[in-house]
Design brief:
Length: 163
């Protein structure tokens, strides 16, 4: 079904706002995504502060062209949506997690990271960076590990001396 020019202007303005405000944008091919899965995806993304929008590729191309993004834009083949957010890693991480759970339904085809176009492999590597909360937990565990080992060794020495 064709979209009227007025509707296209509204969509284009929304895309401009999204691209201007977002720190990271992930291009997603969503061929075969069922409606109830899409609704669940949107809810999960919203909890993480990530938006998800589907628009015509020509309108995305116009909005991206106006943003002066460095590099070569990845090929936006198939049915394309964008996931975006102010957090630099959350959009890629959340889409990647959803794609792993629902194999064959969704794939990352590229994105905009740090003002540059990046390919799918780079976006997937960005998606594998743990959340800040996980990094903090890993850091605390790393600091705690030598202390814990020392306490266990001292405990064993104390047990042997008591025998």
């Amino acid at each position: 079904m064709a979209i009227s020019k007025d509707k296209k202007k509204v969509i284009l303005e929304g895309l401009r706002t999204i691209l201007k405000d977002a720190s990271t944008v992930v291009f997603v091919n969503f061929k075969g995504l069922k409606v109830n899965d899409a609704v669940k995806l949107r809810k999960d993304l919203k909890k993480q502060g990530v938006g998800y929008t589907v628009a015509k590729k020509t309108l995305m191309g116009i909005a991206l062209g106006e943003q002066k993004v460095e590099g070569a834009q990845p090929d936006l083949a198939g049915e394309v949506a964008i996931a975006y957010g102010k957090d630099q890693i959350a959009p890629a991480r959340e889409i990647h997690e959803f794609a792993k759970k629902n194999k064959g339904v969704m794939t990352i085809i590229g994105g905009v990271f740090d003002g540059k176009f990046v390919d799918a492999n780079k976006m997937i590597s960005i998606a594998s960076i743990p959340s800040m909360q996980t990094l903090r937990a890993q850091f605390v565990n790393l600091i705690n590990s030598p202390i814990q080992g020392f306490v266990m060794a001292a405990s064993e020495i104390a047990k042997k001396k008591q025998q």
